[in-house]
Every structure is written in structure tokens, then in C-alpha cells.
Amino acid sequence: EVQLVQSGGGLVQPGGSLRLSCAASGFTFSDHYMDWVRQAPGKGLEWVGRTRNKANSYITRYGASVKGRFTISRDDSNNSLYLQMNGLKIEDTAVYYCGRVQLGSSSDALDIWGQGTMVTVSS
Amino acid sequence: DIQMTQSPSTLSASVGDRVTITCRASQSINSWLAWYQQKPGKAPKLLIYDASSLQSGVPSRFSGSGSGTEFTLTISSLQPDDFATYYCQQYNSYSPELTFGGGTKVEIK
Question: Of A46, A49, A113, B49, which has the highest C-beta tally within 10 A?
């Protein structure tokens, strides 16, 4: 079965750090770009960032609101994706999703999503 | 940045209705647009990619159209399972690479 299973998350104080993980199975993880998307409580979807694949030099890109604080990495040998979040702010409180970028899609659609993990930033 | 504007933000409809949701881009995005369905507490589900291509396993009552700056998602005959929130998403090669619309909640009338 093609799936993404997330772990990590929880409650952290402002200024703190947290690492999210996303384990892939059922497909060739190394072929795909992978994204993180978040959703604040009661709000819409916000793109957090992307890691490209080895063929594209593992280039990473980030949304403006997290650039310089969050780092996306991947371990193709373990079919895993990571999101390291530093300098967390209250406004980073959200459900975080990992997503697989569909191959052959000009719109870079996310065709497989993790189940989501809640991150709460509060004192 | 490219802005994506969805309308309406809320839509009340009955089972069997034909439903249309619109997404407008602040500049041309060719056909680089996808549509998702999200139910409460669940991850989004891809419905349409490249503006009009139906994702595998998605019922044929869902269809997408448009190019450039104006796009539509149509549900030809609304079913009970379709009451959810729908998002459009655009791709461009600059940052942010993906941008989502604000969402359209389809409610029972």
C-alpha cells in the first residue's frame, strides 16, 4: 500500500524546536519531490516547503513565513522525510502534513498525503 | 507572489445539484492547477490535476476546466459524500512554489 506515516509533533514553547518525520512505503520514495503543508486551526492550507529528488540535487524551497527557521531534509535510504522547526512562534501552531508530489503532473499536485500531526506552540 | 481567489467561500446545495466552484489566479498559470477535497480531521484528497485531469479513483461526477487565470471545479450531481471543503492549488517555478486558494465549504441545504 502506498502511504505516508507521520510522527513527531506535540506541545512546544515559543522559541523552541521540534522535528517531524514522515515515513514512506509502497513506492519509490527517491523518485519523488516531497512537500510539507500546514493548516492552522480553522484555516486553509499553507505550503511550507519542498525537497526535490537526487536527480535535482535535493534542492529545497520554503514559504516566506518559515524561511530561515525550518529545514526540510530526506533520507532516501530509509524512505524518510523530515521537517526541523526552530525558533517556533505561536503562529506556527497547525496540523502539518507531508505530501508526495505526483510524477508527470505539470501542476505538481500532491497525490499522497500523510495523516497529519499537530504542532502546538504555547507558553 | 501569485494569489489564488476561490468563490464562493461557502455554498449550500442539495443532493443531486450541479455545483460549480471558481478559482482565479492573479496572473496566468497556464494549466498548472489542482483541486483537492478535505473532510474535517482528514488530509486533503487530490481530485483534479493539470486543471482538467481526473485523478485515478475519483468519481467521474467531478470535472475541472479552465486555463490561464480562471478555473472551475464542477460536481455534476452532488452526493452525500461530497459535502466537504474544496481547495484549488497552483504551481509556479518561483517561491512559493505552491499556493492554495482559501477554500470553498460545500454544505447541506
Answer: B49
pLDDT digits (tens, 9 = 90+) for A54-83: 999 999 999 999 999 999 999 999 999 999
Q: How far apart are CA B36 and CA A11, in angstroms?
A: 29
What whole-number distance in Å separates Cα of residue A19 and Cα of residue A6?
Answer: 11
Among B31, B33, B55, beta carbon nearest to A111 = B55
Strand order in the sheet with B4-7: B4-7, B19-25, B70-75, B62-67
According to DSSP, the residues that pair with B34 across neighbouring strands are B89
Whether the CB-CB separation of A73 and A84 falls below 8 Å is answered with: yes
Subunit contact A44:B44, Cβ cutoff 8 A? no
Q: How far apart are CA B103 and CA B36, in angstroms?
A: 9
